[in-house]
Specification:
The protein is mainly beta and 284 residues long. It contains two helices and 15 strands.
Length: 284
């Protein structure tokens, strides 16, 4: 289970694209439509940025899309191509997005420039470390590296982020037929530009309560995530809960960091509105 097509650390795409988790986790070969598409609605709650003490809740449309091509796939594991003749190595594409932040509505950033919405994209090398004999349980080591840009008339780079993670997938956990459970954990690392965009305070925006600050590259904390989903005949449901800690982060002493840990989460439901008449064999 991969929430990033999806969660970058500040991402609304967790629920916008969470329906990509809808593909069932099958341990045996069976015939499935080449593609499935649907649309639904979801809600997500998370802070303005990692370390912010201001939380927002969004209600958003949720697209659902699954594609089971021979060389290109889009499903619960994200968008990926088959570049290796191996069932234990995959090269995926990770995509995320973050919401804008109006600084006048965030006390810590009052008087500073707004944070623009961003899009982040990059490769992820995914290695299967272990899978059960019936393929109902799988442990992956994922190595996503993404770069971000602001969405505006003159886009600006927001730097790079690297987030190695362990990913455990379970089908039918606790005997709950048809349900998928995913557990993800790992650290975050960012370059200087990434951290400066969110945590630096330029001299002209310094105040007695908010001194000037220059963020540096390095460790950015860790995330722990649990997600569940189930594909019913005509609809899909899913949700996630994420614990985020900034303990030990190189920007932890930034005056813009007001909270060192928090919970974020989201739920979604999508109705299947179309599928391919062509069937393909699916084993995973």
């Amino acid at each position: 289970m991969k929430l990033c097509l999806l969660p970058t650390a500040r991402s609304v795409s967790s629920v916008v694209c969470i329906a990509a988790l809808g593909a069932s986790f099958s341990g045996h070969a069976e015939q499935r439509p080449l593609w499935e598409a649907g649309l639904g609605i979801g809600a997500v709650s998370f802070p303005d940025y990692r370390g912010s003490d201001r939380t927002q809740t969004y209600v958003l449309p949720v697209p659902y899309f699954v594609y089971r091509g021979e060389f290109l796939k889009a499903d619960r594991n994200g968008v990926r191509g088959r570049f290796f003749d191996s069932d234990r190595i995959e090269l995926n594409v990770t995509v995320g997005a973050s919401a804008p932040v109006d600084s006048k509505d965030n006390p810590a950033r009052l008087g500073m420039p707004d944070l623009r919405p961003t899009v982040e994209i990059g490769p992820s090398l995914d290695l299967t470390l272990w899978r059960s004999g019936d393929k109902r349980t799988k442990l992956d080591f994922r190595l996503p590296l993404v770069t971000g840009v602001t969405i505006e008339s003159s886009p600006q780079s927001t730097g790079w982020q690297f987030s190695p993670r362990l990913n455990l997938d379970l089908q039918d956990p606790g005997g709950m037929g048809g349900w998928n459970l995913g557990l993800v954990a790992g650290p975050l690392f960012g370059d200087r530009r990434q951290h400066q965009y969110f945590y630096s305070v330029a001299q002209q925006y310094a105040t007695p309560e908010r001194p000037a600050y220059e963020a540096r590259r390095g460790y950015a904390g860790a995330q722990f995530l649990v997600a569940v989903s189930k594909r019913f005949p005509s609809y899909w449901v899913g949700g996630f809960l994420r614990y985020d800690t900034l303990s030990g982060a190189v920007f932890g002493d930034s005056p813009l960091v007001k909270r060192n840990n928090y919970l974020a989460g989201g739920i979604a439901m999508a109705w299947i509105i179309g599928e391919s008449s062509r069937m393909v064999e699916v084993t995973d």
